[in-house]
Specification:
236 residues, mainly beta, disordered N terminus
Length: 236
């Protein structure tokens, strides 16, 4: 089983910045947080993937700001490189089955499971820049995909990775930037999983983002070492 091990100090050396100045939001590394506008909030979340257990009525949400009793905290990142035409979203996050009928708490007794998950998703096709300087994925494509992997084996989950991909409803599949009426950098986009191949209306990214500055010297070190993403270690 794989698990992400990362600290905020590491985040300062793990992004590759574009050398081309961009209008609007810059290319580079972002730290991701919950968006308070999620429909199923509470608990707050930055990702929703309904039906992960095969039941399309079950709501699964993932808390990008969670801190557990051992002080482990969710660590989610986005790397934007419009020169290469890529958006990479990855990290570790706490979440699972949302007991919608019980004041929005996680359901630890139902058919689903709750715990830590690893996420790795990449948009590699149709990445473009809007007139406002935001990043957008103009159309869905099978190459825009990733995995979510439980760090546990319980309930209906065996610890195996679950694939998910982008989805568009008549327009872009993902938008990232400062949206009309907001001063925050926001990421939002529809998704579909391998478990239920048709799109469920609540399955989407919905997060806010903060730029993680990378000093020039640290950036050169990253390039020289060829590092990208968070550090992983294998657990016994």
């Amino acid at each position: 089983m794989k698990r992400f091990v990362s600290v905020w100090a590491v985040s300062a050396i793990v992004a590759l910045f574009s050398g081309v100045a961009q209008a609007g939001i810059p290319d580079g590394l972002y730290s991701l947080r919950n968006n308070p506008n999620g429909v199923q909030n509470p608990p707050p979340y930055g990702l929703r993937l309904d039906g992960l257990d095969g039941n399309s009525s079950n709501v699964y949400t993932f808390d990008f700001d969670y801190v557990d009793s051992s002080s482990r905290q969710s660590q989610m990142y986005l790397s934007l490189d419009r020169t290469a035409g890529t958006i990479h979203i990855w990290g570790s996050v706490f979440g699972g089955l949302n007991d919608v009928g019980n004041n929005g708490v996680y359901d630890t007794t139902g058919s689903g499971s709750v715990g830590w998950w690893d996420i790795d998703f990449s948009y590699t096709t149709n990445v473009a820049t809007t007139a406002q300087g935001n990043a957008t994925v103009t159309a869905m494509d099978p190459l825009n995909q990733g995995t979510i992997t439980p760090e546990f084996s319980s309930g209906v989950f065996s610890g195996a990775s679950i694939g998910f991909a982008d989805f568009a409803m008549g327009g872009s599949s993902f938008d990232f930037g400062i949206m009309p009426g907001s001063s925050s950098i926001t990421g939002l986009g529809w998704l579909v999983t391998d478990i239920i191949p048709n799109h469920l209306a609540g399955s989407d990214w919905l997060f806010v983002a903060v730029v993680v500055p990378v000093p020039g010297a640290a950036l050169l070190g990253v390039v020289g070492l060829g590092l990208f993403g968070v550090v992983r270690r294998r657990l016994s």
